[in-house]
Design a protein that fits this description.
This protein has two helices and no strands. It is mostly helical. The radius of gyration is 18 Å and the shape is elongated.
Length: 80
């Protein structure tokens, strides 16, 4: 029973780190894909692809910040 709060704390701490690592992997791979597609596609389609990439980036960034926000709110709710 003593290790449960420690486990919860570590899991909440490591979850954003895991999100960050996955986010960086996705970022590198998608930039490489965009670079490859820029050689093949006309500029209009490339612009649409870039917009889609930016929306996906925003979504992943929000999913990265959500566990941190939940951790902050949980720390506010817990008694000192």
């Amino acid at each position: 029973m003593l290790f449960l709060p420690l486990f919860l704390f570590l899991s909440l701490l490591l979850l954003p780190l895991l999100f960050l690592i996955l986010f960086l992997i996705f970022l590198i791979l998608s930039l490489l894909l965009l670079l490859l597609l820029s050689l093949l596609l006309p500029p209009f389609l490339l612009l649409l692809l870039l917009l889609l990439f930016l929306f996906l980036l925003l979504f992943l960034l929000l999913s990265l910040l959500l566990p941190l926000l939940l951790l902050f709110l949980l720390s506010l709710l817990l008694p000192q």
